[in-house]
Amino acid sequence: MNEKPVILVTGANGQLGMEFRDLESSFTDYRFIFVSRDELSITDAGAIERFFGSHAIDYCINCAAYTAVDKAETERDAAFLANAEAPGFLAAAAAKYGAAFFHFSTDYVFNGNGNDPYTENLPTNPVNVYGESKRDGELEVVKHHPKAVIIRTSWVYSRYGKNFVKTMLRLMNEKPEISVVSDQVGSPTYAGDLAAAVMHIIQTHLPSQIIPGIFHFANRGEISWFRFAEAIKEISGLQCKINPVATSEYPTPAKRPAYSVLDTGRIIATYQVSIPYWKDSLKACIRLLKD
Question: Which of 83, 95, 165, 225 makes the best surface tag, with the fewest CB within 10 Å?
Fold first, then answer.
């Protein structure tokens, strides 16, 4: 029997998984197992079953996902395998072996036609394949692990991986002028804050004490992609000119929700997590990128 509770993190090389790696040294009362897709194929139910059977896992945090929103329109099977079927396999194994299960979903499960922050109990109605696959993933997780925690998040960025912040910094360094969509509104989420929130939940709750359900987590405040880009420019001290454009001027294979602000009241009330303001977290991330 392990002396320390064991935390399994899948998708460990993605931007969220890397943030959990960074937190490992701050949570020495736990033993972390980080696995990439090469080390554990989450689309292989048998491999997952064997892995859980041979490791005494107390908490499973599923950071693995198919995140290529536009590619999903033509790679539907791959998106649904990774985002819907695979979370079901993990959830089933976690439930069988008594592990708490954390899974991440997206603001893209909503259609974006609202004007008020989305609460967890509103009906889902995704407008693209990626959103559909994530919505089905939620259903699979709930079906196989009734005590799972599903956290919907939005506009995730980090110093790791590919994301809007890093793309903007690169383009602003390369070009004198860029255009950014100004009529899509949401809340950025710094992956470091999301990882810290999950670790707060784990640190304050034994696996048997986890309060299940769907929760929303994003940094406080709402903003357009254009205003977000302007803030990146301001904080990084770059000189690139940014032009606001309408979504209609910047067509993409996958439709995006126009409004996808998430109401985070439930996770704050349930787990007493603290959520930083978006600009404070952006400053922290850019500072790390500069270092």
Answer: 95
Give me the amino acid identity at 230.
E
Could you say which architecture CATH assigns to the domain 6-162+188-221+260-276? 3-Layer(aba) Sandwich (3.40)
CB 134 within 8 A of CB 126: yes
User: Which among 190, 184, 138, 134 has a CA at the least distance from the CA of 163?
Assistant: 190
Model pTM? 0.96
Check: CB of residue 128 under 8 Å from CB of residue 108: yes
Give me the mean pLDDT over the 106-111 stretch: 97
56, amino acid identity: A
Pull the structure tokens for residue 177: 């002028």
- Among candidate residues 219, 163, 171, 222, the one with its CA nearest the CA of residue 16: 163
In the structure encoding, which two tokens stand for residue 148, read together? 């799972």
Among 70, 73, 144, residue whose Cα is nearest residue 103: 144
Q: What is the largest CA-CA distance in the chain?
A: 59
Q: What is the mean pLDDT of residues 183-208?
A: 97
Map tokens 């997206």 to a residue.
106
Provide the 10 A C-beta neighbour count for residue 241.
Answer: 11
Going by C-alpha positions, the residue among 73, 7, 66 that lies closest to residue 34 is 7
- Residues with a catalytic annotation lie at 130
pLDDT tens-place string over residues 60-108: 999 999 999 999 999 999 999 999 999 999 999 999 999 999 999 999 9
Q: Give the residue from 146, 162, 173 showing the smallest Cα distance to 233.
A: 173
User: 195, 32 in Cβ contact below 8 A?
Assistant: no
Helical ranges in the chain per DSSP H: 15-23, 45-54, 76-80, 86-96, 129-144, 164-174, 191-204, 225-236, 265-271, 278-290
